[in-house]
């Protein structure tokens, strides 16, 4: 079959799709990846056909917006550019339709690829929604946590439903609905509403790329399936820098600090990281793209590198401090090390909550992320035999099963299922 993978977002959003793509390709499928032009080299290096969405520089303009990490302004930073959104929808839809062969094509799309859901309705291409984190699936039984809204399970169901409605209809829909419905109208489709909270999820199949023990709720949609974390970080394809390997071998295990591949405004956080290492007398490893957000003069005990596969680095570290991106969480879980999370926006607070619930980490909000506080939290984590033991136990859980194979099987099933009508 031809499988059209449609991830949209940062490297943390694209990498799991590439891991899934390799598994699909090994099963004999023709895999195409449709995403931002910024990822062309990455996609083609991994041997997949590539199709661009949007204009050159769209991704870079998005991540340079500091509001992307603001707890209140992040939604507008993501969806507020109506021209960019309309361009993505048009381009993405055209790329899908021109690669569609009835009976032989399936879409596997991330939540931000709104154009995939439109193609699922017309011309009716079978689609699996690929969700990387539990926070994007509304639930009254186990409601997700956000930076500005921390629902409690004991709140009345009607009140939680009202909050979901308000978020969908009063915050998100005004930003995305005009572009979505204008394009739908050009195809003869009726207008849609509650775009992100309800409509974007495929009525045929939703595949969560996380395990049941990380996130599950009794009131999730019946078409939901949980495969497990599909971890992919170019390990083996991107050689480790000699200076990094030498640093990791040169002394005690360092503490790793990373605030996401899309972060371009992390200098205050990395300055706090260096100060925390000084207070603790620990070595530190800063993983951040470019030098602009890294302190100019680092002590010999702290090393900065642009990139290194987390799966190769984290097992050689004492702990990991990060922003709570789901991919970084998964790599930390697999490494079996304590995690300190500084959640900023989107799904990050909910991921931090789940790590705390597992007993493998703690969170520190950005306003409290100072060298002194980071040092205190890290000392508590590293001095806790229960946390260290629990992290090792969860690492064993991460070795169970074959998430990519399960996800592939559920995607393949859709080729034999009828497409969902537009009325759904």
Write a structural description.
The protein is of the alpha/beta class. It folds into 2 domains: 245 residues, Glycogen Phosphorylase B (Rossmann fold, 3-Layer(aba) Sandwich), CATH 3.40.50.2000; 157 residues, Glycogen Phosphorylase B (Rossmann fold, 3-Layer(aba) Sandwich), CATH 3.40.50. Helix content is 42%, strand content 14%. It contains 16 helices and 15 strands. It has a 7-stranded parallel β-sheet with strand order 3-2-1-4-5-8-9, with helices on both faces. A 6-stranded parallel β-sheet has the order 12-11-10-13-14-15, with helices on both faces. Strands 6-7 form a two-stranded antiparallel sheet. Helix 12 links the parallel strand 13 and strand 14. Helix 10 crosses helix 14. The longest helix is centred in the middle third of the chain and has 30 residues. The two termini are 25 Å apart. The mean pLDDT is 91.
Question: How can the largest sheet be summarized?
Answer: 7 strands, parallel
What's the CATH topology label of the largest domain? Rossmann fold
CATH architecture identity of the largest domain:
3-Layer(aba) Sandwich
CA-to-CA gap between the ends?
Answer: 25 Å
Mean model confidence by pLDDT:
91
- Helix percentage: 40-55%
Overall tally of domains: 2
CATH homologous superfamily classification of the largest domain: Glycogen Phosphorylase B
Q: Say how many strands there are.
A: 15
Assigned CATH class of the largest domain: Alpha Beta
Tell me the β content: 5-15%
| Structural class label | alpha/beta
Poorly predicted runs are none
Determine Rg (CA atoms, Å).
21 Å
Query: What global shape is seen?
Result: globular
Q: Going across the major beta sheet, what is the strand order?
A: 3-2-1-4-5-8-9
């Amino acid at each position: 079959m031809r499988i059209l993978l449609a991830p949209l977002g940062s490297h943390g959003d694209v990498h799991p799709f590439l891991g899934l793509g390799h598994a699909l390709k090994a099963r004999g499928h023709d895999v195409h990846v449709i995403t931002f032009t910024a990822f062309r080299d990455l996609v083609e290096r991994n041997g997949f056909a590539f199709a661009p969405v949007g204009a050159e520089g769209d991704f870079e303009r998005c991540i340079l917006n500091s509001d992307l990490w603001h707890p209140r302004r992040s939604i507008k930073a993501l969806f507020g550019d109506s021209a960019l959104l309309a361009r993505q929808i048009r381009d993405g839809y055209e790329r899908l339709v021109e690669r569609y062969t009835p009976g032989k094509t399936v879409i596997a799309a991330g939540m931000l690829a709104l154009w995939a859901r439109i193609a699922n309705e017309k011309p009716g291409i079978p689609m699996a929604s690929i969700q990387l984190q539990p926070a994007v699936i509304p639930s009254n039984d186990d409601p997700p946590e956000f930076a500005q809204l921390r629902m409690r399970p004991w709140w009345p169901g009607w009140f939680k439903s009202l909050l979901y409605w308000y978020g969908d209809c009063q915050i998100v829909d005004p930003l995305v609905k005009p572009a979505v419905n204008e394009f739908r109208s050009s195809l003869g489709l009726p207008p849609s509403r509650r775009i992100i909270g309800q409509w974007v999820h495929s009525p045929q199949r939703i595949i969560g790329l996380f395990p049941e023990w990380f996130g599950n709720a009794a009131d999730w949609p019946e078409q939901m399936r949980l495969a497990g974390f599909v971890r992919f970080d170019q390990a083996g394809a991107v050689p480790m820098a000699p200076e990094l390997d030498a640093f990791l071998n040169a002394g005690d295990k360092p503490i790793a600090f990373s605030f996401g591949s899309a972060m371009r405004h992390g200098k205050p956080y990395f300055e706090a990281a260096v100060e925390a290492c000084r207070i603790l007398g620990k070595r530190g490893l800063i993983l951040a793209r470019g030098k602009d957000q890294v302190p100019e003069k680092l002590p010999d005990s702290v090393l900065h590198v642009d990139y290194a596969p987390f799966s190769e680095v984290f097992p050689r570290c004492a702990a990991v401090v990060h922003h709570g991106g789901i991919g970084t969480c998964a790599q930390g879980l697999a490494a079996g090390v304590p995690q300190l999370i500084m959640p900023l926006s989107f799904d990050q607070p909910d991921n931090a909550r789940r790590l705390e619930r597992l007993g493998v980490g703690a969170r520190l909000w950005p306003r409290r992320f100072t060298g002194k506080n980071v040092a205190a939290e890290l000392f508590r984590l590293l001095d806790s035999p229960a946390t260290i033991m629990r992290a090792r136990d969860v690492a064993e859980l991460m070795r169970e099963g074959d998430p990519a194979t399960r996800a592939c099987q559920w995607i393949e099933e859709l080729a034999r299922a009828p497409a969902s009508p537009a009325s759904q």
